[in-house]
Amino acid sequence: MTIAERYADYATTLSYDDLPPDVVDHAKKLILDILANAIGGHDWMESGPSILRGVRHLNRSGSGATVLASGEAMAPEWAALANGSFAHSLDYDNHHAKGVIHAGSSVVTTALAAAEETAATGRELITAVVIGYEIACRLAMALGPHSSHEMGFHPTGTCATFSSSAIVGRLRGLSAAEIVNAIGLNGSQAAGSMQYVVNGAWNKRTHPGLAAHSGFVAATLAGEGFIGAAEVFEGEQGFFQGYALRPTPERALETLGAAHETLEVAIKPFSLCRYTHQTLDLLIALANERAIDPTEVESILIEMPTYGVQLCGSPIEAKRQPTSAVDAQFSGPYAAALALTEKRAGMDVFTSVLESRMSDEFRRLMAITDVRQADDLDAIHPEFWPGRVTIQVGGEKIQRYSKHMLGEKERPMPMEGVQAKFIELSPNHDEATRRAVFAAVDDLENLTAADLVAPLRRS
Length: 459
Hints:
Radius of gyration: 21 Å
Number of helices: 22
Distance between the termini: 47 Å
Strand content: 5-15%
Helix content: 40-55%
């Protein structure tokens, strides 16, 4: 069997009863996390209104699924485009370290839209979500994710295109052969250019939304008899050859059905690039533990794996002078200054510091921050996402190191933490709405997808 055939078989045969309790429990957290991000990506980010207006024009009065931030009805493919784009806009959505992929913003939003469309049960929704994570995360690992980045591709935008078709196919009841054809067509849809880094553009925010939309397009055509490319992953002109310098195709099926990559998906505690999280976590803890006065800090050294430096530390002068939210999300110096001055990094402080144009002291801290690569960190990355910070303060050198980030399975975020994140990201929702969402997530296996989104839906 080809990889696509194995994925299609998995998508059509996995049962809710096959899922261990810990997988179900974590899937619920991941669903709530994406609901929070899909609301917050509209309410907190400047790109939100333009995305919503644009998708409204494209939707042309369609219905069948819910735009989570606004509560309005749209056709499932357009609701998924909006929700998926919002969910990644904050860079706060859950993340799979080994695949370097934010799979959830497409996986959960695709599953929600398709589940609403098909009047699916909560159990069917949870199963579809797990199918999506298992496929997307394995594909990202098989790319050798950094070798895909080196070619200018963002795995969040490419791999999730294929998992989205598997999700839609499962919930619409397509045959395995039809899902194979949809996945074959996805080979002509996978996108995710990383050129957005040049000018802080908003492209990256839409990558999961576009992947979700593509999944609906491909599954719909395949359901009507469309023939997609064979051997779309492993073929001579296939996905692995076109999107990665050093692919490891064997990882695409490794442990599929036997172990769950869903459990490896971490829930982010901060709204900045994942590569800055060790910096934030270590320096916030240090600042609180030692009651450090930021004005006494003389120098800051951040050490990251190579790719983290490329994203968050190079060119260093630009990273020391962020001019937009996108710049700040991908700036090691900004993360360090935020940690030391605010001693936390929620959305409110992240945005308020930017809106106030950053104080002179904040800018001084960024100016004395350096970001460097370290061989020992590269040696264990991306299986782990290690980081080290060294600060000189009051004539004393203080160093901190960690290889497990807050939110990973070694340091898990409890459901209460995810609920707090939902509250943070939904400033325009009242307490009754939030409680209704939490109750629906908690009892999702006994409810329907419609019940889950009902508190957010506009009548």
